[in-house]
Design a protein that fits this description.
- The strands form three sheets. The chain has an eight-stranded mixed sheet, sandwiched between helices. A six-stranded mixed sheet has the order 12-13-17-14-15-16, sandwiched between helices.
- A hairpin with a 2-residue loop joins strand 3 and strand 4.
- It starts with 11 loop residues before the first helix and ends in an 11-residue tail after the last helix.
- The model has no long low-confidence stretch (mean pLDDT 94).
- The longest helix is centred in the middle third of the chain and has 18 residues.
- It is an alpha/beta fold and 462 residues long.
- The chain is globular and about 60 Å long.
- It is 40% helix and 19% strand.
Length: 462
């Protein structure tokens, strides 16, 4: 396959911006939030295109679906495999600051010039006419992996699983499928019960591979068990196979001991915060262990313990229970389901957090706002600054404010995320806490404001 050419001087950002605009113009559910567009999904055209391009998707694969934690599990699994010596492709979504984050080679997002080159490979192709933004980016990721000669890939499902673009990957390449906790989400697309949603996500089990199931409710596990049996896959339930003990936990992260069928790890350190992240760590370690078991190196022994420790200690997840500032204490979390809200509240309860707390809430339309507020525990007397995420898919702040008032909370509206942060910080004071939750668009805007970051927004691409 061709190699990505070097950029012309000072042209890479301009080329990147032009390519990103071309991709964004293709739209799709991710861009519009229109469920009718999602209901038209299929993977047959993606499979046909991959065949015509010589299958750039074909390399040993870990495929990750779920409602909560799939991004973290994908990122940790890739980091462990890379630390063990693999040459990796990681495809994740959504991004925080730049679309380039979605395609990472050996843990590094593709460069602006590489992104532009990849976009030029797919956008003019008549076969991709009518493809969505997400479909095109996934295809670009597979091309990037082929150009780089990656020998492993970790794919995070965008939405659902059965008809997600990532599920067009060659089934024979799939070594491990991972299902993280399942919750009611995108019910107009995936179904309105846990078993229906679980069936959509478990449909990534397309081959007799290893299947790792995170701790989750029994109604979802039952579906996953049935699908694994149907596909001739071997199911590994983290709850049944692993023993986990957290020895220290604070705002800087946690230390834990983990016993798996392969090894007992002691003193694993991670900057990730919260009990849910402990479970994500266990899930990722099991995924990496089972992936490693399919390699020739497994004849020597299980995945190296040093690789696991190094990967966990150095991998951060921006925007996921991220302590971004200490005065006032400011924590960001991109959460969009009731389960994610409950996990956030659970993490708070296990930490020393100032009692004076002010929320910044920016949420997308179509989310189960009452259930999310229940999960967070927002109610009588709580101060909440409501702000629209910087996207056309933002929920109406008037509706959000009314819902909060009905619960006895004390809401106030702000025009944008930076102003919301200023208002919340003033209310909290230096000894209080500001909790920024909701859409990743909200979290990204908060990070850019507080850290002085620039990304696609500065290029007019948001």
């Amino acid at each position: 396959m061709a190699t990505i050419p070097p950029p012309a001087p000072d042209a890479s950002l301009a080329a990147y911006a032009e390519a990103a605009r071309g991709l964004l113009a293709r739209g799709g559910f991710e861009r519009t939030g229109n469920a009718a567009e999602a209901k038209k999904w299929d993977v047959a055209h993606i499979e046909g295109w991959l065949e015509s391009r010589g299958h750039p998707d074909r390399r040993p694969t870990v495929h990750v679906a779920g409602s909560k934690g799939k991004g973290t599990v994908s990122t940790l699994t890739e980091a462990i495999l890379r630390a063990a010596g693999a040459h990796t492709l990681l495809l994740t979504s959504p991004d925080l600051h730049t679309a380039r984050e979605r395609i990472a080679i050996d843990g590094v997002p593709v460069s602006p010039e590489a992104f532009a080159w990849l976009a030029h490979e797919v956008l003019p192709d008549p076969a991709t006419a009518g493809w969505s933004y997400f479909e095109l980016l996934t295809a670009m990721g597979w091309l990037a992996g082929a150009v780089a000669g990656c020998d492993w890939q970790v794919l995070e499902v965008g939405l659902g699983g059965r008809l997600d673009t990532t599920n067009a990957v060659d089934p024979a390449s799939k070594r491990v499928a991972v299902i993280t906790p399942i919750d009611l989400e995108h019910t107009e697309i995936l179904g309105d019960t846990i078993p229906l949603i679980a069936a959509e996500k478990a449909a990534i089990i397309t081959a007799p591979c290893a299947v790792i199931a995170s701790p989750m409710r029994e109604s979802a596990l039952a579906v996953i068990r049935a699908r694994a049996t149907e596909a001739g896959a071997t199911l590994h339930e983290v709850t049944e196979e692993c023993a986990l003990r957290v020895t220290t936990s604070n705002l800087d992260g946690q230390t834990l001991d983990l016993k798996t069928p392969k090894r007992t790890y002691r003193g694993l350190k991670s900057p990730l915060v919260g009990p849910h992240q402990s479970e994500n760590i266990a899930t990722a370690v099991r995924a990496a262990e089972e992936a490693w078991a399919t390699t020739e190196a497994a004849e020597i022994g299980p995945v190296p313990e040093a690789a696991v420790k190094r990967a966990l200690e150095t991998t951060r997840m921006p925007g996921r229970f991220e302590v971004i500032r200490r005065t006032p204490l400011t924590i960001l979390d991109g959460l969009h389901t009731p389960l994610a809200a409950r996990r956030f509240a659970e993490a708070l309860r296990g930490l020393v957090i100032p009692s004076r707390r002010v929320w910044v809430l920016g949420i997308l339309s179509g989310k189960d706002l009452p259930a999310i507020l229940d999960g967070l525990g927002i109610g009588e007397g709580d101060d909440v600054v409501v702000t629209p995420p910087p996207t056309p898919r933002a929920a109406d702040p008037l509706v959000v404010t009314r819902t909060l008032r009905e619960r006895g909370a004390i809401p106030q509206r702000s025009t944008d995320v930076p102003h919301a942060l200023e208002a919340a910080s003033a209310l909290a004071g230096d000894r209080g806490a500001v909790l920024v939750v909701g859409s990743l668009y909200t979290v990204a805007a908060a990070r850019e404001h507080l850290l002085g970051l620039t990304g696609d927004h500065a290029l007019g691409l948001r």
